[in-house]
Amino acid sequence: xxxxxxxxxxxxxxxxxxxLAEESLRSIRARNxxxxxxxxxxxxxxxxxxxxxxxxxxxxxxxxxxxxxxxxLKDNLCQVGVPTTCSSKILEGWxxxxxxxxxxxxxxxxxxxxxxxxxxxFAMGSSTETSAFGPTRNPLDPTRVPGGSSGGxxxxxxxxxxxxxxxxxxxxxxxxxxxxxxxxxxKPTYGLVSRYGLIxxxxxxDQIGPFATNVADAALxxxxxxxxxPMDSTSLPEPAPDLVAHLDDGVAxxxxxxxxxxxxxxxxxxxxxxxxxxxxxxxAGATIVELSIPELHLGLSAYYLIAPAEASSNxxxxxxxxxxxxxxxxxVTAMNEVxxxxxxxxxxxxxxxxxxxxxxxxxxxxxxxxxxKVRTQMIDAFRRAYRQVDLLVGATTPSVAFTFxxxxxxxxxxxxxxxxxxxxxxxxxxxxxxxxxxxxxNLPIGVQLLGPGRSEAQLFAAARVLxxxxxxx
Length: 473
Hints:
By secondary structure, this protein is α/β, with parallel strands linked by helices.
């Protein structure tokens, strides 16, 4: 069952939240050893949350819009008392004293968090291979990666362990694994969803968003977690958008840009799927406009200066003094060095060093400052594009899910996995990935829809059009 159906059944008293939680636990136990999706299964917390929902229903009260729906949480989202590691040894065993705003909103809506899912360490990766606790495998083909960094959350939904999951997207970390696992993934407008309680990677880029098996469930989940939060200084000062009511608005009269730079270098099957998606949108009443946005080619270079620079600052807090791992040494300086050496993996160290270098005296203007100028150029380029069209369409990834180890020894090849998703994060705008077509080994392809800030309702309506054709074919 999908999340919408589950919630409706629980609210009417036709389904039991406890029974649904038990079914989710059975699904997790059945494949978690094989796939390594969950780092921590919060069985007692899930059963307690489910029983609260059932009790609320028994008293004739409404438990919320996600009543009884099991959900997986990426392990960089704090939940009070529940182990939260960011898949790093430096936080192994840490239990937060507070919960992320999105977690509180899920509980208020009656959702049932089942536990914490695996990710690339500190969300730095595109395959979930950099986790300190082993890689997650793609449920559709366990010889291949699920994508990253939110690979565990995507795999939880793709493996039917939970109908919903939350991830975070810094440069494509929701959309890319959604595409590789054949599900829907959404990167909301920056500031639409509170980042309070999300352990930071790159603060000007990070955004929390939903995974779901279908467009309607993703829209419902985003409505629940979105809206202003005074605990987040970057939160937009407005309520959650109305999304579910506009799912069937369609695309008639919309102008959709088919962007050359969002398919350049992609496999032939991916390009064909994007072109077919454009044809479907045209048949549904949209006008397709072929566009070129050359500035998008600069996105990867700018991102891999800005994101590591912010990470180098954010990760300075893991010093062996305040919380997390501590390796004793003769003095504070030595202790800090050996703690960080033991606690961080190779990819995290690589990005910290790159970011620190880019921010150092003598190089700041040449590297970080220049990257910020490129980011501004990209924002301006998107703004010009959205004067011509309402939405954009392109590929989510250059290929379908790739095999383990095929890119781990070549960081640039791995970074190119996010070449089509990174520009949206730099601009702070909205995008989603919807399954559309099949590629190599009959693996799913994701088509990406992009829009200006606060365009989520239009994106979901367009995605619904593609979804209807894909599921009817």
